């Protein structure tokens, strides 16, 4: 209703942005609550709680009678995201065998990308249904919420969580069921040892603040900051607006966002195949180069050829779509899945849920900042916004090269000795606690 005739300033509306970003602000708060629930009641029940939040949030959003009801629905969905993002990566890391941990954990990101693709397809179809297409779009979110609810009743609890809560015999039986063999004593002894060390820690937050706990905490938090400041969610959230900016009409821009969704899904599959074969660092470094080129090239095209009221040529607009897909592909096999994988596999059991809550909440905070600010940034920074994200990607590459060790094929409970103590910088960081 209030669209302006300006290529870079279609919608500079804080309430419109709040509709998108309120979900992530709620998820930030929920992640700390979910950490406590995860520790006390287990991963399975935390996932169950997430599904209930999703169901209620979807119902309230689709039936909203005013903006306040709509945002309350988004807040409840945000609680679902906070609980789900806390519990699911931990669940996957704890049930996966060490040599398949990367691939299994990336299934989380794979199905996130499938969800994004389905959402884009739903939005493309419901955009033509007036006046209730948006209600249908939001209400259909109840379908995956229902599937998650049923699934959370079927899945087993993780052996580590059961042992952590004093249910050792159930944990042993669960490990046998998950592995499909009777001989699991060696792995179970590792879980018991980690659990005994965890029980000695009465205040995990205090333990997390020790210098010996700094490497996984700093890396977990910075990965989330960098993941969001690649600009990926700016592109995925506002792809229709972005493609309108470069000259596509409404239906064409929605279809273009479907194309980026397809690229997202198929390139996440690349990560599943390669992460345990080539390692984490090589995927992250390669992607930094590819994403830097993409953002810089988009910025150059728009800076030179797209002003306030003109349009790009058809070939230029197609090039922008190609470059966006080039960017999304690199993110999908690297910073997207590995931003969740690496924090989930590096915290020891005694600080795992608390440490991962910091990672999740940081991700939600940065997602909130980008979602709330992007349309306004696009209005005021115009094409320069793509150079802004390119600068962040350059810094990310330096971070990976100098500070991120390889964690491939390392047991979660051996990270301290086999990773942090062998890294020249992180060994210096933790050294004072080792004396």
Automatic annotation (TrEMBL):
It holds the Pfam family Sugar_tr. It is found in: Membrane. The chain crosses the membrane at residues 15-34, 46-65, 104-122, 134-155, 217-241, 253-275, 282-302, 317-342, 354-375, 381-404. Keywords: Membrane, Sugar transport, Symport, Transmembrane, Transmembrane helix, Transport. Residues 1-408 form the Major facilitator superfamily (MFS) profile domain. It comes from the Eukaryota. It is a multi-pass membrane protein. Its main location: membrane. Belongs to the major facilitator superfamily. Sugar transporter (TC 2.A.1.1) family. This is Major facilitator superfamily (MFS) profile domain-containing protein. It comes from Hibiscus sabdariffa (roselle). The lineage of its organism: Eukaryota, Viridiplantae, Streptophyta, Embryophyta, Tracheophyta.
């Amino acid at each position: 209703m209030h669209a302006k005739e300006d290529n870079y300033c279609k919608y500079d509306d804080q309430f419109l942005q709040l509709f998108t970003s309120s979900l992530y602000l709620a998820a930030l708060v929920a992640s700390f609550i979910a950490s406590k629930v995860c520790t006390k009641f287990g991963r399975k029940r935390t996932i169950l709680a997430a599904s209930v939040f999703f169901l209620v949030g979807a119902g309230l959003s689709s039936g909203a009678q005013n903006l306040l009801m709509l945002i309350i629905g988004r807040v409840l969905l945000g609680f679902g995201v906070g609980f789900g993002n806390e519990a699911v990566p931990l669940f996957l890391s704890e049930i996966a065998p060490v040599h398949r941990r990367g691939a299994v954990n990336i299934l989380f990101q794979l199905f996130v990308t499938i969800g994004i693709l389905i959402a884009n397809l739903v939005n493309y179809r419901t955009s033509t249904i007036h006046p209730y297409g948006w209600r249908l779009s939001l209400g259909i979110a109840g379908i995956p919420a229902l599937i998650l609810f049923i699934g959370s009743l079927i899945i087993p609890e993780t052996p580590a969580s059961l042992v952590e809560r004093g249910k050792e015999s159930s944990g042993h039986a669960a490990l046998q069921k998950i592995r499909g063999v009777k001989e699991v004593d060696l792995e179970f002894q590792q879980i018991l040892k980690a659990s005994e060390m965890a029980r000695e820690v009465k205040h995990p937050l205090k333990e997390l603040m020790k210098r010996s706990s700094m490497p996984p905490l700093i890396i977990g938090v910075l990965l989330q900051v960098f993941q969001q400041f690649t600009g990926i969610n700016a592109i995925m959230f506002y792809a229709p607006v972005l493609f309108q900016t470069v000259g596509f009409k409404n239906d064409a821009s929605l279809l273009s966002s479907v194309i980026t969704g397809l690229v997202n899904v198929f390139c996440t599959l690349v990560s599943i195949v390669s992460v345990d074969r080539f390692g984490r660092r090589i995927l992250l470094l390669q992607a930094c180069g590819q994403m830097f080129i993409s953002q810089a090239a988009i910025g150059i095209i728009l800076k030179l050829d797209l002003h306030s009221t003109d349009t790009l040529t058809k070939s230029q607009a197609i090039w922008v779509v190609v470059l966006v897909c080039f960017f999304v592909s690199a993110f999908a096999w690297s910073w997207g899945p590995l931003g969740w994988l690496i924090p989930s596999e590096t915290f020891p059991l005694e600080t795992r849920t608390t440490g991962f809550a910091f990672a999740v909440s940081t991700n939600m905070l940065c997602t909130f900042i980008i979602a709330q600010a992007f349309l306004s940034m696009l209005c005021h920074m115009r094409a320069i916004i793509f150079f802004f994200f390119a600068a962040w990607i350059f810094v990310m590459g330096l971070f990976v090269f100098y500070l991120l060790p390889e964690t491939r094929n390392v047991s979660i409970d051996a990270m301290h000795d086999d990773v942090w103590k062998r890294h020249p910088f992180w060994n210096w960081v933790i050294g004072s606690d080792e004396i």
